[in-house]
Amino acid sequence: MSEIKYALITGASRGIGKAIAIRLASSGYHILLNYQSNDQAADETVAAIQANGGTATKMKFDVSSEQETETAIQQWMDSTGVSYIEVLVNNAGIKKDNLMMWMTNDEWKSVLNTSLDGFFYITRFLLKPMLTKRYGRIINIVSLSGVKGMSGQTNYAAAKAAVIGATKSLAQEVAKRKITVNAVAPGFIKTDMTSDIDPEMYKRIIPMERFGEVEEVASLVNYLASKDASYITGEVIHVNGGLYT
Ligand code: NAP
Predict the structure, then answer these.
(1) pLDDT digits 0-9 by tens, 22-63
(2) Is the pLDDT of residue 1 over 60?
(3) Mean pLDDT of the 116-138 span
(4) Is the pLDDT of residue 119 over 60?
(5) pLDDT score, position 202
(6) Measured by CB atoms within 10 angstroms of the end CB, which terminus of the chain is less buried, N or C?
(7) Ligand 1: which residue has its CA nearest to atom 12?
(8) Residue nearest to atom 18 of ligand 1 (CA)
C-alpha cells in the first residue's frame, strides 16, 4: 500500500481554500482542513471531498494564535503518529478595509495577525519535519494588493507584502532541502470576501472582463504542490485575468 500523503490548508472551509482542498484531495492528498468557526461550511467541504473519493480531517483553530495552532496540530500528530505534512497552503486571511486615517488598531492588528502571524506560526511548526524529510511544498496565498497596493487596504496590503518578503527569504533558506516556497497572488476572485464588491464596477479594469473562479486559483496551487514544479521557488505568481503585469 502506498504511503498516505498529507496536505494542510488553512482557511479551507470556504472560498479559495475550499477549492484548493478539493483539488489537492483529487490529487491524492489526505486533507487537513483548517478553519476558524464555520463548522457547517467545513462539514460541507469534507462532504464534497468525500463525494469525489477523497479523504479529509477537520482542524478547527485560529491561525493567529500560536498556542491554538500548535496544540491542534500536535494533538492530531500524537493521535495518528504522523509527524510529516508534505504540503502546507497558507490561505486563511481576512480583510477589514478602511482609509488609514480612520483605521482602528483592531482593523490593523487582526488583519496582520491572521495573514502574517498565521503564516509564521504554522510554517515554523511544520518546517522541521519537512527539513528532516528533505522535501516539502509551502504555498502562500497573498494578493495583488500586496504587490500593487490598494486604497483602503494599508493593513491588508502590508500583511500580504510581508508574506511575499517572507516567502522569498524562506525559499532561499530551505531550497537545498528540496522544499519550495511560493506565493500565489489572486486578483478579484468570486468568494464571500469579495461579495461586497460590485463586479460591474471592476469588470472594466480587468482585461478578461470578469472575476476569477476559485478553481482557477486552485489549479495553480495544485501545480505548485506537485513534483512537476520542483524548480520553481521564491516566486509570486499572479492569477488576475491580466489586471496587473
Ligand atoms: P473567504 O471566502 O472569506 O474564506 C476565508 C477562509 O479563511 C474561511 O475558511 C475562514 O474560516 C478562514 N479563516 C479566516 N480567519 C481565520 C483564522 N484566524 N484562522 C483560521 N481560519 C480562518 O476568503 P477567500 O476569498 O477564499 O480568501 C482566501 C485567501 O485568498 C485569503 O488569504 C485572501 O486574502 C486571499 N485573496 C482573496 C482574493 C479574492 O478576491 N477573494 C483576492 C486576493 C487574495 P471560517 O469559514 O471558519 O470563517
Answers:
(1) 999 999 999 999 999 999 999 999 999 999 999 999 999 999
(2) no
(3) 98
(4) yes
(5) 83
(6) N
(7) 11
(8) 62
- Of 220, 223, 224, nearest to 238 by C-alpha is 220
Task: Determine if ligand 1 sits within 6 Å of the CB of residue 188.
Answer: yes
Identify the residue whose cell numbers are 463586479.
199
C-alpha 179 to ligand 1 mean position (Å): 25
Per the residue annotation, which of 29, 35, 121, 156 is the catalytic one?
A: 156
Query: Which pLDDT band holds residue 245 (cuts at 50, 70, 90)?
Result: low
Q: How far is the CA of 66 from the centre of ligand 1 (A)?
A: 18
The cell for 215 is 478553481
CATH assignment of 5-239, among 1.10.10.10, 3.40.50.720, 3.20.20.70, 3.30.1360.70: 3.40.50.720
Give the residue from 21, 20, 40 showing the smallest Cα distance to 31: 21
Atom of ligand 1 nearest to the CA of 13: 9
Does residue 156 carry a catalytic annotation? Answer: yes
Whose CA is closest to 63, among 133, 24, 112, 3? 112
- pTM value is 0.98
What's the CA-to-centroid distance between 124 and ligand 1, angstroms?
20
